[in-house]
Design goal:
This protein has a domain of 97 residues. It is 31% helix and 15% strand. A five-stranded mixed sheet has the order 1-4-5-2-3. β2 and β3 form a beta hairpin. The longest helix has 20 residues. The chain is elongated and about 90 Å long. The model has no long low-confidence stretch (mean pLDDT 81).
Length: 144
C-alpha cells in the first residue's frame, strides 16, 4: 500500500468512528417530547370545547365566530349585479331555513354545540338555490 492509500484508509476509519459517536445513545439518554401535544383545529368547524372557553362562552355567536374563525366572514361581495343578496353569507340553525348572518348577534354562544362553515359548493348542495351561491354558517345547538 502506498502512503496515499494508507492515509485514505485511516481517514475513512476515523470518519466512520466519528459518525457513530455523534449519534445519541438512546438507552442512556431518553428522548424528551413536548409537554403539550399540538392540537390540530379544523378551519371549517368550531368545536364545543372552543365555544366553552371562558372568554368566549359569555358572548353572542357573532363575536365568538369573529374571535375564533374570522375567515368565516371573509367575502368577495355579491356575484350578481341584478341580485344584491347573491353570494352573501347566510346562517342556518340546525340545518333549518336560511337567515341573514346579522342574526348571529341574537344567538347565545352557550346554546351552541358546534359551528360549521359550508363553502359555496357545499351550501348549494345542501340548501339548493336558497343558498344564492354563497357560503353558509351552520349552527348546531343543544336542542337537537
Amino acid at each position: 500500500m502506498t502512503v496515499t492509500q494508507r492515509s485514505l484508509a485511516i481517514l475513512l476509519v476515523l470518519g466512520a468512528s466519528c459518525a457513530k459517536s455523534a449519534a445519541p445513545n438512546t438507552a442512556a439518554e431518553p428522548v424528551t417530547t413536548s409537554a403539550t401535544p399540538r392540537v390540530v383545529r379544523n378551519p371549517d368547524v368550531i368545536s364545543r370545547e372552543e365555544l366553552q372557553d371562558p372568554t368566549i362562552a359569555g358572548t353572542d355567536a357573532m363575536n365568538a365566530i369573529r374571535q375564533l374563525r374570522p375567515a368565516f366572514f371573509r367575502s368577495r361581495g355579491p356575484r350578481s349585479l341584478s341580485n344584491a343578496t347573491a353570494g352573501m353569507l347566510q346562517i342556518s340553525q340546525d340545518f333549518g331555513p336560511l337567515q341573514p348572518y346579522a342574526n348571529l348577534s341574537s344567538i347565545d354562544t352557550r346554546s351552541l354545540v358546534e359551528v360549521r362553515y359550508l363553502n359555496e359548493t357545499e351550501a348549494q348542495s345542501r340548501f339548493g338555490i336558497n343558498a344564492n351561491g354563497g357560503p353558509v354558517i351552520v349552527l348546531l345547538t343543544s336542542r337537537q
